[in-house]
Input
Amino acid sequence: MADGRKAKAIPKIECGNQEDVKRLVRDLHVSFIQFWFVDVLGFLKSFAVTPSELSEGLTEGMGFDGSSIEGFARIQESDMIAKPDPQTFQLLPWRDAERPVARMFCDILNPDGTPYDGDSRFVFKRLLGKVAEKGYSFYVGPELEYFYFKDNRDTEPLDSGGYFDTRPLDVGSDLRRDTIFALQSMGIQVEYSHHEVAPSQHEIDLRYDEGLKMADKTVTYRLVIKEIARQHGVYATFMPKPIFGQNGSGMHVHQSLFEGARNAFHDGSDKYNLSPIAKHYIAGLLRHAPEIAAITNQWVNSYKRLVPGYEAPVYVSWARRNRSAMIRVPMYKPGKEAATRMEFRSPDPACNPYLAFAVMLGAGMDGIEKKMDLPDPIEEDIYEMNPAERKAHGIRDLPGNLYAAILEAEKSKLVKEVLGRHIFSKFIENKKIEWDTYRIHVSRYELDRYLPRL
Output
């Protein structure tokens, strides 16, 4: 903690059903239970209930006005129900240990109890169900980068450290340590953490998990990082490109499909150790990458990161060792068949993880269903190629700005099918408003460059 006090230990929580939740609330003297869900852009929303109202909330859900939530209902159809998922019950580690506060993620329902089409979590669950019918489980391991700044009004960094630096250059190690302890107390397993390339930029990597659990963990991860930073008197941001001239923050997403306990991506007889399923999946992501960019990189600022020269991929390609490629396949280690996976490197950590994971999975599954062919990997540095060389290799560009990404998404049959009509239309509408707001803004750059000369 910021003042050196040692945080009280939080008991390990294992919860499977409504009765487990009620027992834990009683035994742990929980004072409030927060119901969590996200809007169409991935911003976390919550309201709290007391233990006396919990039983009704678990069985029937709690009603709320959806008309004020971005991408939810219109005013004339505003009644919504938030029904919590008991398996997501956890204590919040930054709240009073004597009178703890818990949280549960919710499914959003219509008043008649049917799933609400505007619920991002439902969109992902619906797709995961279809994938499960084909015999697959989807596993994800995201690597989210972020910055620590002194406050949210300026981008003054806390340090001048670089990749893998330690003290004295890295002054964020205590913040990362406390964050990891908080994540672990909530049942979120961390693989490792380190200082990233840019000053005051950091990364804490989560151990891979089943898709829906990982989407919930990603939402939790972002809040925990911000809350621990706040307790230390600093500000954490997942803004993709906050500092001009420095690397931006990405969210490299490791993905694989399993058939039971077997990794469907692994084939030891293949020269890349990739099965036909894995190759079709990667081919699907390559085919649809420009269409899904508006979902995986949803902000005007996202495209300030996706430019050559700052380690962010801007060209649609795949490789094994080449980190300028959009998709990378980490090298296979003998005896580690379960770890065979592909890494999608273009998304950023400010996306809605439910929708982003859904469109990635949808693109990969489309490649499998249509048996799309995977081109040869590009191991040369793509940044060094000229346009003619890229064209000769069949390398396309990702959209160069949010408007170009919107146009790609708007005409995409796959994006519309994965998101569903409601979220698709609400998302596109919101992004067009954002682009128009940005387009008419007169920036400091324009004033500095043009006002003295024109």
